């Protein structure tokens, strides 16, 4: 039984017109790794549509994006000039996260999605991790070689008792790193799952959620078939989505 996995879109200007778009790699992972049917959710910021979406989907995948959450959502200082934002995505995903958690719908956040869940639940973000004392530069290498860009960049240590530790039977992994924003303060109710070498939190689960609610700062969707960490994350997410669909069909 295939579950319906909703993926919220970014709003991008292509030529003269706005387009609602999702990177193909997220769709591929939702279908191939999680075993679902991907449905793209336009970022309209319409509460009535969000309520309907909640009744449609069996899971939500919050994808990464070049854009950043507007800092007023977490009481941050104004962004620097030239920072890319997506008000329509903020107006859609931030209220959607709360609805999804309250409804017990499986939720997986990746990169921007990881940051969105933390913000919705009351956490804060660093806007420029590489400028924080004691933290490393987590930005991607400047290259057009995607395998190099998404290649392993640093290690993460799994926390004791974490789902990652249970799924993989070990205590660490190497992950890619394509971000400059990161967790400044983890929201109450979130449980750290993995921490980078410099202490930056790179994965967490929502402790209060009644179903699978998980997020990672790195990009497990990239060539997931070659990575056991990625496979473990998406398999657990997909299983939770299918279980929800089975319960709804009973």
From TrEMBL:
<protein>
    <submittedName>
        <fullName>Gamma-glutamyl-gamma-aminobutyrate hydrolase family protein</fullName>
    </submittedName>
</protein>
<dbReference type="InterPro" id="IPR029062">
    <property type="entry name" value="Class_I_gatase-like"/>
</dbReference>
<dbReference type="GO" id="GO:0016787">
    <property type="term" value="F:hydrolase activity"/>
</dbReference>
<keyword id="KW-0378">Hydrolase</keyword>
<dbReference type="InterPro" id="IPR044668">
    <property type="entry name" value="PuuD-like"/>
</dbReference>
<dbReference type="InterPro" id="IPR011697">
    <property type="entry name" value="Peptidase_C26"/>
</dbReference>
<dbReference type="Pfam" id="PF07722">
    <property type="entry name" value="Peptidase_C26"/>
</dbReference>
């Amino acid at each position: 039984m295939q579950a319906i996995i909703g993926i919220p879109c970014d709003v991008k200007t292509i030529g003269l017109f706005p387009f609602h778009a999702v990177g193909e790699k997220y769709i591929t992972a939702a279908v191939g790794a999680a075993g679902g049917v991907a449905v793209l959710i336009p970022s309209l910021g319409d509460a009535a549509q969000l309520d309907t979406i909640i009744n449609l989907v069996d899971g939500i995948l919050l994808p990464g994006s070049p854009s950043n959450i507007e800092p007023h959502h977490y009481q941050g200082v104004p962004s620097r000039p030239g920072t890319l934002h997506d008000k329509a995505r903020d107006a859609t995903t931030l209220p959607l996260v709360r609805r999804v958690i309250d409804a017990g719908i499986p939720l997986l956040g990746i990169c921007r999605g990881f940051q969105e869940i933390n913000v919705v639940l009351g956490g804060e973000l660093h806007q420029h991790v590489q400028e924080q004392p004691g933290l490393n530069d987590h930005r991607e290498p400047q290259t057009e070689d995607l395998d190099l860009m998404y290649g392993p960049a640093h290690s993460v240590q799994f926390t004791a008792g974490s789902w990652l530790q249970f799924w993989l039977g070990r205590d660490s992994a190497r992950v890619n790193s394509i971000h400059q924003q990161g967790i400044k303060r983890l929201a109450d109710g979130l449980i750290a799952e993995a921490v980078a070498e410099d202490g930056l939190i790179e994965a967490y689960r929502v402790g209060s959620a009644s179903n699978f609610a998980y997020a990672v700062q790195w990009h497990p969707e990239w060539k997931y078939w070659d990575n056991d960490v990625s496979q473990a994350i998406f398999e657990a997410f997909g299983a939770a989505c299918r279980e929800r669909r089975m319960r709804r069909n009973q």
